[in-house]
Write a structure and sequence with these properties.
Layout (H helix, E strand, L loop, with lengths): L1 H24 L19 E2 L2 H20 L3 H12 L5 H6 L15 E4 L6 E4 L4 H12 L15 H10 L8 H11 L12 H21 L1 H5 L11 E4 L6 H8 L3 H8 L7 E2 L2 E5 L1
Parallel strand pairs: 1-5
Antiparallel strand pairs: 2-3, 4-6
Helix pairs in contact: 2-3, 2-5, 3-7, 6-7
Amino acid sequence: MKNKALFLLLVTVILVFGSCASRKTTLQHPNYGKNKTDQGRTPVTTSTSGLTYIEQYKDIAIAEMNQYGIPASIKLAQALLESGNGNSYLAREANNHFGIKCGGVWQGKSVTRPDDHVRDCFRVYNNPEHSFRDHSQFLLRKRYEKLFTLDKNDYKGWAKGLKEAGYATNPRYPELLINLIERYQLYQYDRPEVSYATKEKREEQVEDIIHEREIKEPEATMNTEVIKNAVAMVIYEVKATDTLYSISQRHGVSMDQIKQLNGLSSDDLSVGQLLVITK
């Protein structure tokens, strides 16, 4: 009888500890599957894609600043916005970080993407450096001429000047650029002219380039919208609790539209990621 009682006690202990051990192996992180009820979307993860993008392209932006006087901070902020931290289809597949269209003067490769029309033509570059240089060339036009008289480290003046010159129709465009610059401390890459004489020389060189282009490319100069439509986008920064579905519902647009505008191939998002909602 005692042996039978001991046997039953032993079996009970084994079952209890076995059950506990089993439960320990199935414990999950408290946030595991937290958003699965939200239309089955995958929860976002933390990412430093903005910082990675800046580290990758800051030297190119600085080189362009030294050449033409466009603050490196402005160049990087515009690239971050237009390319979605380098995640847009055009940035990934065409090395086009500023959304510049073909235009009548473009003789290089191109790709068609839906934008204002179903098959709009966008420029394809051999590498990102060409895209950054072409963006500088795009700004070397009469309508932006007075911006080049600003100091190379006057990012606030440039942000406001771009809007006033018609680069953007979004009234918050200067604020978006300035917020990005100050959030990522992009102003650390700006450099003032070493002297007034150096600034004056650079201004004269830029003025000569602009006037020469006006003679050679009058049609492209007069019809800049053919090459680059004014930015009229709504930008949204992804929060930790966001999903693609919740963002689409909040802004009254479809998930497919957001994915198409940002070149997304899945529903995955990253905290801090900038999404173009409408253009």
